[in-house]
Each structure stands twice: as structure tokens, then as C-alpha cells.
Amino acid sequence: MTWIRQQLMKAITLGMIVGSALIIWKALVCMSGTESPVVVVLSGSMEPAFKRGDILFLYMSKDPIRAGDILVFNVDGRDIPIVHRVIQVHERQDSGEVDILTKGDSNEDDDRVLYAQGQLWLQRHHIMGRAIGSLPYAGWVTIILTEKPIIKYVLIGALGLLITI
């Protein structure tokens, strides 16, 4: 009977940890106004402003986008969001829409080669959020687990073993 109670307590504790993490994530989503309030910088294209492995905190507001803003955006046909700086903004008077051109700080050319074929500008629906803060190097865990999946499986196995023991 005691063994069953211990296992039940372990399961409840694990459920509380997972539930707490989900609540924190949903609170961040609500406060930031974006579905991805936290992203990891995966390349060196924004150095020296952000280095590979930095965690960025995003916020989505109705404020106008201006040259110099750092945006995280999705491009049609790509799964991984891109973090780059706005270099040009064109506001269309007739519709109120905005055309945005971006570039990585350490890249020589603008991002038109990264956009979908035939696309010359980003629009608001491509934007996930603006970078409002960062945590240097804290995202390396994510990069290592993505690039070396064997480490991820070992950690999951070790956690599973730890829970059952």
C-alpha cells in the first residue's frame, strides 16, 4: 500500500510540474500578445546585437514598425522563425498596410533571398513579435538538444528512470 501511495505522489508531483509550466507559458502568451513569447537565436546573423544561443523575449504591439526594430518573423515555406532588424518600412496610404524589409546585422545583403520566391517585402501577418529583451547564452540547451538528438533521448530516459525509482 505504501509503494502505491509513493508512486501516486510521484505522478501527482510530475503532473503539478508539467501543469505549472503550461500555466506559465500560457500567461506569457497572454501578456506578450504573441504565440511565441520566447525564441532562441539559432544563427550568428544578428551579431554583435545577439549571439547564437541567446533567448529573446517577444512582444506584439499595435505600435508602428520602424527601421531599427528587431523583429522575429515567419516566411512562407519555412518552419523556423528568423530574427533580423528592420531596415526599410513603406506605409501604403491607400490601404494602411506596411511593407517591411529586414536584414541581419552581420549579413551584407537584405533578406529578400530568405523570403518566399517572388516576395520582396514582409507584411504584418509575417511578424511574430518584436524583441524587447534577451538572456545571453541561455538557449544553448535547446540548440544542443536539437542538434544532438541522442542527448535528448538519454535525458528523457534518465528522467523516466528517476521517476520510477
Can you tell me the overall shape? elongated
Structural class: alpha+beta
CATH superfamily: Umud Fragment, subunit A
What about the largest sheet?
6 strands, antiparallel
The fold-level CATH name is Umud Fragment, subunit A
Task: Average the pLDDT over all residues and give the rounded result.
Answer: 91
Give the low-pLDDT segments.
none
Helix-strand sequence: HEEEEEEHH
Q: So what's the CATH class?
A: Mainly Beta
User: Which range does the strand content fall in?
Assistant: 15-25%
Key words describing this protein structure:
22% strand, hydrolase, Umud Fragment, subunit A, 165 residues, 3 helices
Q: What does this 3D model show about the protein?
A:
The protein has helices at 2-32, 140-147, 149-164; strands spanning 38-40, 55-59, 70-73, 82-91, 98-103, 127-135. By secondary structure, it is of the alpha+beta class. A hairpin with an 8-residue loop joins strand 3 (70-73) and strand 4. 18% of the residues are buried. The mean pLDDT is 91.
Short description:
It is built from 3 helices and 6 strands; from the N terminus they run αββββββαα.
Spell out the blueprint of helices and strands:
Layout: H1 2-32, E1 38-40, E2 55-59, E3 70-73, E4 82-91, E5 98-103, E6 127-135, H2 140-147, H3 149-164
Antiparallel strand pairs: 1-2, 2-6, 3-4, 3-6, 4-5
